[in-house]
Amino acid sequence: MSTEPATRAMISYHSADPSLSSSAKSKILEETDTKDLLFTFTYFDIASCGSTSRDMLVYGKAHYGAKYKFEAPSEKDWGEGKVPTAFSCLPMLKITAPNGVELDVSESMIVDIYLAERFNLLGDNKFESLTIQSIYANIHYLRERMFSVVTCAPKERLGPRRDNFFQNTLRKFLEDHEYHLKQNGDNGHYVGNKLSLADLHLANVIHYLQTLPWGKMAEKAFRECPSVWKVKENVDKVASLIPWRESDEFKLYEKNSIQWYSSLAVPEDKAEE
User: Fold this and answer.
1) CATH of the domain at 28
2) CB neighbour list of residue 158: distance below 8 Å, 6 or more residues apart
3) Residue 256 to residue 233: CA distance in whole angstroms
4) Biological process GO annotation list (predicted)?
5) Which of 74, 81, 181, 264 could potentially form a cystine with 5 if both were Cys, beta carbons 3.0 to 4.6 Å apart?
């Protein structure tokens, strides 16, 4: 995706309507039943940063009656600055109340956490919520390091950076997460014995890595950590997500991701092909 031009559509957190104070907006978010809100999630037509939020909206529809729309901007509209954003990037989440008031949420981490809270995916108490968010953040930063270090680098550095990612970043990540999962009883969940934002995000980050040119190498590394891999297996069995994961729309996002990242990373080592 190209960079938005200097003149571009911007979303403001401030309303021109004096009746829509921050407390009024909070009241809409806190007091409106989930089934009465419309969630419009805007991201490019790839998996990547949009996967976890999409999963949660599908889950929210199945379990809480949430209504949602997935939208993807055209390359033309994005390049011409016609796609409204808060920080010149996607995803964005628009929440529409029954009275037509629209509230915008930006940045993938914040969108994910908001949806997780809305759909009861942050545990049963404050400490569980903080624990889940801590684990989620660590998983998220693994993916962000991929974006900033491994896939966005000069061609001659892609190989060495990939190797360093496997030898150091991913190795330590997997060691840490194996430890915490075993501490929770090695049941395929990070906290307690039920699905959480952390579980969903891990499964989606694994899926993201699988769409890279060296996806088989990444999958092998995760499979060698049985406690971590068990989380992915549990998410894959969530009944309300199975039809979504098998849908043409999901497969299109996956296909487009593979195509998008094909030129941004080195291929598999020959031994892994």
Assistant:
1) 3.40.30.10
2) 150, 151, 265, 266
3) 24
4) glutathione metabolic process
5) 81
